[in-house]
Amino acid sequence: MIGMAARIIAHKRTILVAFFIIAIISTVAQFFVSVNYNMVDYLPDDAQSTKALKIMEEEFTASVPDTRVMVKGVSLQEALAIKEELAAIDGVTEVLWLDDVVDLKTPLEMAERETVENYYKDGNALFSISVRSGDEVKITDAIYELIGKNGAIAGEAINTATSQKMAGTESLYAAALIVPIIIVILIISTDSWVEPVFFLTAIGVSVLINLGTNIFIGEVSFVTQSVAPILQLAVSLDYAVFLLHSFSDYRKKMNHPEEAMRLAMKKSFPAITASAATTFFGFIALTFMKFEIGSDLGVNLVKGIILSFISVMVFLPALTLVFYKWLDKTKHKSFVPSFAGIGNLVVKFKIPSLLIVFVLLIPSYLAQSNTTFTYGLGDQPESTRAGSDYLIIEEAFGQTTPIVLLVPKGNVVKETELVQELEELDHVTSVIAYVNIVGSVIPPQYLDESVTNEFYSENYSRIVINTNQATEGDIPFSIVSKVNEIASNHYGDEALSLGESVTLYDIKNTVTKDNIVVNMLTIVSIAIVLIVTFKSISIPLVLLITIQSAVWINLSIPYFTNSSLVFVGYLIISTVQLAATVDYAILLTEAYHHHRRELAARKAIIKTLDEKTFSISISAGILSSVGFILWITSSNPIVSSIGILLGRGALLAFVMVVFFLPAMLLVFDKIIKKTTLQANFYEEKR
Question: Cβ(242)–Cβ(268) under 8 Å?
Fold first, then answer.
């Protein structure tokens, strides 16, 4: 470290220029990284909806009807004309309406009323359309231009389009709130007006480089785009704080800034490395998720932690030494409040602290595992047009979710039996297949291709099942399960289903398995880092119990408040909170371990709390602020849920580290001494 520090100091201006050039190039490069809003793309290849989608794209020109378009006050003929205009829009691959399920040459009164009212009711026409993935904004804008203000759109395409439009604005809004708040928090914690600028510049450069290097990946998920930069900033600011605070301490002892920086780099390197390592390995666990939104975020966060570490240990020393005179010129009086006495207060409440947490622990664990989860993006807020349109369509026609079934082509009798069974299912309003729409007695070869192509490809028969339920929940998922079961009874593994509810059903099954793997990997990897850091068996256990308790309490709150939680947010935050906030426990325990060699346990913990509570509160304040601002500014339910859980989790971790952890360290002091290599704890003379 000494040799590296000397080289960095010797080439400080070159390093400064190099980092700024790379940051500028990366800033430009990030605009060429595409953002993927399609959750289907992140399912594993062996998921049945993934396999079905691949077959659908290869065999059929049409895709799954995922969006509904309603036009008010139209006749049958006007509705048919609008259907043709919708089909003519570039990117609309299929339009289904009443004429696809009922012969309009016969009076509507002769048709089944429920079937008719799924598409045409009180002069309002409802079309089910398929939209090309990736062009949702352009296509839905064209549809709105066609249907005007009185029309409405609901479904996956408009939700994706709205999210895309709002993502950029919301990210800027979040940054505009976060940066000033972080600056204020950092000003309070430093004695120079420009020192926070140094912190933010060092981490900001690494964030820009991280965003730019995504060009080598090609694209990122919408979750990564929204969460990763802000999360990287929040969890790695501590590295910069460690270094500059150490530099400031050595400046008081050394005449030369270069020597002060060299010693500061040497002293802070172990603490920064330990902090980065726990976060690094925690985020590594996300990369093992089969639902690849998690692994996509994990890769970016791991890359971000490495870049932040390099930036703090290489770029920040160079930046500080070139402009250190600004630190001297902008000194201000200390705003740090006195925390003297908090140690005594915490020690007095050690038994109540332990009792409260242990009483909450089992209920919290059980509650967080029984929370009601959602798995998709959900519908847009009512304040948006997409949100109000959804309510308009639901009020007029109720809910409709289509499922597309692909079965091997050729056996008309088997297909007829399948369709008849599907039609008898609860909540199924209509089934659109060749055998019941055209007729099983008419061979496809006698009909025009425009008719048969809707139902048959070279190898598969396509069946559309319309249901009157939402896209997810107990009933929608049970419908998907029953459809799959019936199809499997007739065709075995060759039958495949797809659609939004099928995708969410597959996501549910995938992320439920991911939850076990990711949590185990996170805990084990962080435990190993802690064992190496403290050379102890008991200290990692105490720290993990402290932070994991905060995680469980945090994730149990939705259960007790009777609110649902987006499972992807739950899964990610259960890893992120543990990885990001274990640093607080490390900081306090390292200081305690140091003081314990000179003082008795009680005096050591009191001194530690008096010294370190403020530092921990600054870190927790920044991370919590970032989380709550993400929650406030994002309309995306996954990002919003990550925000509220992160904000609340950082505060809970702070409370646990300040109140519960000291009590644990005192109670288990003798065990810690015996299970820690070269503990060298102070022994009181009798």
Answer: yes
What residues does 96 pair with on adjacent strands? 128
CB environment 458-475: b (16+ within 10 A), e (fewer)? eebbbbbbbbbbbbbbee
Predicted local distance difference test score (pLDDT) of residue 50: 87
Give the integer Cα–Cα distance in Å for 68 and 466.
12
Q: Where are the alpha helices (DSSP H) in 492-600?
A: 500-534, 538-560, 567-596
Give the number of other CB atoms < 10 A from CB of residue 373. Answer: 18
| Tokens, residue 219 | 């694209």
pLDDT of residue 20 exceeding 90, the answer is yes
DSSP state of 536: B
| pLDDT exceeds cutoff 70 at 686 | no
Amino acid identity at 163: S
Whats the size of the chain, residue-wise? 686
Angle of the 500-534 helix axis to the 567-596 helix axis, nearest 10: 10
pLDDT (0 to 100) of residue 313: 92
> Both tokens of residue 255?
């005449």
- C-alpha atoms less than 13 angstroms from C-alpha of 515 in its C-beta half-sphere: 17
Cβ atoms 567, 375 nearer than 8 A: yes
**What's the rounded mean pLDDT across residues 233-253?**
85
Query: CA dist 515 to 49, 291, 502, 506, 518, Å?
Result: 21, 10, 20, 14, 5
pLDDT tens digits, one per residue of 445-471: 545 555 567 788 888 988 989 898 888
Interacting residues of 36 by C-beta distance below 8 A, sequence separation 6+: 42, 219, 220, 221, 222
Residue 125 has pLDDT above 70, yes or no: yes
Which residues face 154 on adjacent strands? 68
pLDDT at 62: 66
- Is the pLDDT at 440 greater than 80? The verdict is no
CB 646 within 8 A of CB 577: yes
For tokens 């009180």, name the residue: 122
Single pTM value for the model = 0.82
Token reading at 578: 């543990």
Contact between 477 and 505 (Cβ < 8 Å): yes
* Cα–Cα distance for residue pair 450/77, rounded to 1 Å: 21
Express as a percent the part of the chain with pLDDT over 90.
Answer: 35
| pLDDT (0 to 100) of residue 446 | 46
Neighbour-count burial of 416, counting CB atoms closer than 10 A to its CB (0-12 exposed, 13-18 middle, 19+ buried): middle
469 Cβ neighbours under 8 A, 6+ residues apart: 399, 401, 427, 475, 476, 479, 501
